[in-house]
Amino acid sequence: MSITYRGERFSGYNKPKRTPNKSKKFAVLAKKGDKVKLVRFGDPKMTIKKDQPARRKSFRARHKCDTKLTNLISLWQVRVKIVFSLKNRMFVNSKI
After folding, report:
1. How far is CA 9 from CA 5, 6, 30, 38, 81, in A?
2. pLDDT per residue over 22-51, tens digit each?
3. Coil, strand or helix at 94
4. Contact 60, 52 (CB under 8 A)
């Protein structure tokens, strides 16, 4: 299932994708009920430093990961960090 929204293709609702040559690193076409919203976030010049415990702790504290996330951008930042770190770990460990 492919969705086109404002001239941009998405693989589905609530599925993050990387956005090359854009002002932000990730984009998500978020859907809740009947409402659809395009959310862009992440600095393209920065890397995700998931392997450093102090930085991970700081990120989780800054985005209040232990409480319920109501801000849409913070919610997707936390989800994408987890999803893409798992994908990268799978690709790094696999023998291609």
Report:
1. 6, 8, 13, 12, 21
2. 888 888 898 888 989 898 888 888 877 777
3. coil
4. no
Ranges of each domain in the chain: 3-93
Residue 49 has what DSSP assignment? -
64 CA to centre of own chain: 16
Cα–Cα distance measured from residue 94 to residue 87, given in angstroms and rounded to the nearest whole number: 11
CA distance from start to end of the chain: 28
12: helix, coil or strand?
coil
Higher pLDDT, 36 or 88: 36
CB-CB contact of 14 with 27 (8 Å): no
